[in-house]
Amino acid sequence: MKIKKLSVEKLWNKHTFTIDFNDDITILIGKNGSGKSTILNLIDNLLSNGKNNKLYEFSSINLSFDEKREITVKQTSLNMQDKIEELDSIKNLIAQLQKDILNKKIEEKHNILDKTILKEDDLLDKEIDYLFLNTFDMEVQQSNRVVTSSNSKKHYQGKSYIKTELDILLNNLITDFKLYLLKIKEEVELIQSEFDKQLNIYTEENDIEGLKEKLIEKSKKLKSVYQNRDTFKNKINQLFLDTGKKITLDENNSIIFELDENNSLTPYQLSSGEKQILIIMLNIMLLDNKPTILLMDEPEISLHVEWQRVFIETLLELNPNLQIIIATHSPAIVSKNFRSKVIKLSNFNVKG
What we know:
Elements: E1 3-11, E2 15-20, E3 25-29, H1 36-47, E4 60-65, E5 70-75, H2 80-103, E6 118-120, E7 130-133, H3 144-147, H4 150-156, H5 165-204, H6 208-239, E8 246-249, E9 255-258, E10 264-265, H7 272-285, E11 292-297, H8 305-309, H9 311-318, E12 322-328, H10 331-334, E13 342-346, E14 349-351
């Protein structure tokens, strides 16, 4: 499923605009405050069914897709008296719920929607595959999202290599990567098991030609299973070539970067920019070529200019089934290959 169009009426009671998106790549450019990040956040909020809600004032928003699907959200403005009455209503409902709980008489679920709020007219009947990448780097001690949670403190306690939020993202992705490798191992074992059964049959029948065909078929299946992982490793090695680092896996399937025969680095010892590109590439690789809407807000931060120039091509080589929507200030990301994919924004005025 791909996004075709975003239509917004009276954002902050001021801006009405429509953006048409390309099926493959759309690049939003404009000065700070022109609306790039707001547009990505609006899309993110709609695709998450409001789970990633950031409050914006608007009259209505419509996000349309191919396959004749759409999401329409209308916002209801409440005056102060309405808000007071609504709060009273919610308080009464909570009191009744507490009474029901005590009496064990709850027979149905109550959904309380916090509203100054959103009326969802036409939500999709299935979850949309999308990914919003917005990387950043800060000391863990300064990150309220991480440290204020007792669960987070407990989870990362004793892991001295976790120093930044990028390290936390890496830690989670590396865990997912190991699970992905286990999945590959299971697929390889299944292919080998099926081949072994066929090998006995063709050997007993002395069918050499048939055996050759099965060997070729097995080889193609194994190549297909390993292709996504191998493309990921090749792309990382191309990006890191000038620094002399080469990605490989240790005996525990942990990612390491070889410097020479005797020296290596963990991902947590990489520079901020290297961690960021690794996080982006791991996220894309773990999609396993699934068609996905990819939203990215200023991915050029901490990335070398040479990486920026090959950034979009690298993502598409890793997963050609992406619909990419990027907000950027970087001329290098746009490059001559993607000028036709640019949408210029000026205070939410759209210029194709």
